[in-house]
From TrEMBL:
This is Glutamate-1-semialdehyde 2,1-aminomutase. One of its GO terms (cellular component) is cytoplasm. Belongs to the class-III pyridoxal-phosphate-dependent aminotransferase family. HemL subfamily. Its cofactor is pyridoxal 5'-phosphate. The gene is hemL. PANTHER family: GLUTAMATE-1-SEMIALDEHYDE 2,1-AMINOMUTASE (PTHR43713), GLUTAMATE-1-SEMIALDEHYDE 2,1-AMINOMUTASE 1, CHLOROPLASTIC-RELATED (PTHR43713:SF3). SUPFAM superfamilies: PLP-dependent transferases.
Length: 436
């Protein structure tokens, strides 16, 4: 069981050194490097339920959940069985296959406004393709995004982007052509007047507004109903499409993602999905009204493709995971959210640590600030140094939080009973430790 006190990390350290020799920073995705919290990222060799096991033999209760996909817990037996069976029938065919159709049907069945959907391999591909489709459909080029919203590492969407860019305090990325950046308008989130002003000035040129359905990449910052309604009204009035990025919230914030909780009224035009939709395998998707999706090749002139898209093994993982995401699973996630955020509020209040809880359905995050968090600027008021200390106090007690103050905490169907008790205990002890 997870021991209190420093864990041995010699093997993780050795792997990091080997990794650094051949992989930039030793990691294949920046936030994994522990850059914001310091110390050694753990090299994990095994995961089951709510538990990660590292190369040094340490065990951690996992609140990262592979950054969202592992909604049923790690290595869920039913998913494992289905994936193993699928793999035994072949890895990739390069032809259409029945499983990809079944996965598309499952998405369309659950998300009412999505009539047609295409499968891709990552959230980045989904948003990139949705943007191209919106531009092809409207014949326009400008894209509106919001500060603190992350949509993957798409050139046009890397400005003020949250997630790793927030963690490492980067305003944007090097290597994005100025001409591409010039096609993106970045606006403050939840700011209706700013959105109205942008449309008043540029409305005729806007192809799409893309928004994280309920942002999770600056911590959880839900949209106000007024903001959601303004996005829908202004895009309609000006002939632009509204793209709801549900890569993180889809099939997680609720059974129907943020859509089921939204107060927008009329639905967005396009949606992007990822994470849960692949159950831990590289699957993502974008979809929407049939009329818009019909613009995609081979039916229409907007090109989009993928050697491994609809891969039968990955699609099996996604399909089995979605089918297993019952109302009971969402009730379990919600209970875990309530228990964990309750413990944070109690422990942090007792220890005098300023904090706010961000919440979107079953999803949540913790902000180390006194101020109300409604946008990127207010999220950045956090005490990130205190977060780093809390992170390590938890890690030493065998609980692995996201290594950044700007990320959601992810729970799963395996976060129940004793797992929750141990997390609650660690929260109380860690809060006391960092204020001692
Ligand atoms: N959109 C959102 C809302 C995301 O949270 C993410 C990833 N965290 C992405 C897009 C990009 O997905 P991927 O990392 O699979 O490319």
């Amino acid at each position: 069981s997870p021991a209190e006190g420093a864990q041995p990390t010699a093997s993780s350290a050795a792997w990091l050194e080997r990794g650094r020799a051949v992989i930039p920073g030793g990691v294949n995705s920046p936030v994994r490097a522990f850059g914001a919290v310091g110390g050694e990222p753990r090299f994990v060799v095994e995961a089951e339920g709510a538990v990660l096991r590292d190369v040094d033999g340490n065990e951690y209760l996992d609140l990262v959940g592979s950054w969202g996909p592992m909604i049923l817990g790690h290595t869920h037996p039913e998913v494992l069985e289905a994936v193993t069976a699928a793999a035994s029938r072949g890895f990739s065919f390069g032809t259409p296959n029945p499983t990809e159709v079944e996965l598309a049907e499952e998405i369309v069945r659950r998300i009412d406004p999505v009539e047609s959907v295409r499968l891709v391999n990552s959230g980045t591909e989904a948003t990139m393709s949705a943007l191209r489709l919106a531009r092809g459909f409207t014949g326009r080029e400008l894209v509106v995004k919001f500060a603190g919203n992350y949509h993957g590492h798409v050139d046009a969407l890397l400005a003020s982007a949250g997630s790793g860019l927030a963690t490492f305090a980067l305003p944007d990325s090097a290597g994005v052509p100025a001409a591409t950046a010039a096609q993106t308008l970045v606006l403050p989130f939840n700011d209706v007047p700013a959105l109205e002003a942008a449309f008043a000035e540029h409305g005729a040129g806007v192809a799409a507004v893309i928004v994280e359905a309920s942002p999770g990449n600056m911590g959880i910052v839900p949209p106000t109903p007024e903001f959601e309604q303004a996005m829908r009204r202004l895009t309609r009035e000006h002939g632009a499409l509204l793209i709801s990025d549900e890569v993180m919230t889809g099939f997680r914030a609720s059974r129907t993602g943020w859509l089921g909780l939204s107060q927008m009224g009329d639905a967005p035009d396009l949606f992007t999905f990822g994470k849960v939709v692949g159950g831990g395998f590289p699957v993502a998707a974008f979809g929407g009204r049939a009329e818009v999706m019909a613009q995609l090749a081979p039916a229409g002139p907007v090109y989009q493709a993928g050697t491994l898209s609809g891969n039968p093994v990955a699609a099996t993982a996604g399909l089995t995971t979605l089918r297993r995401c019952t109302d009971e699973v969402y009730a379990t996630l919600d209970h875990a959210r309530e228990v964990i955020t309750g413990a944070v509020t109690e422990a942090f209040t007792a220890a005098g640590i300023p904090h706010r809880i961000g919440r979107a359905g079953t999803m949540f995050s913790v902000f180390l600030t006194d101020a109300e968090v409604t946008d990127y600027a207010s999220a950045q008021q956090q005490d990130t140094a205190l977060h780093a200390r809390f992170f390590h106090a938890m890690l030493r007690r065998g609980v692995h939080l996201p290594p950044s103050a700007f990320e959601a905490w992810f729970v799963s169907a395996a976060h129940t009973g004793d797992v929750l008790d141990r997390i609650v205990e660690a929260i109380h002890a860690s809060a006391r430790e960092i204020t001692a």
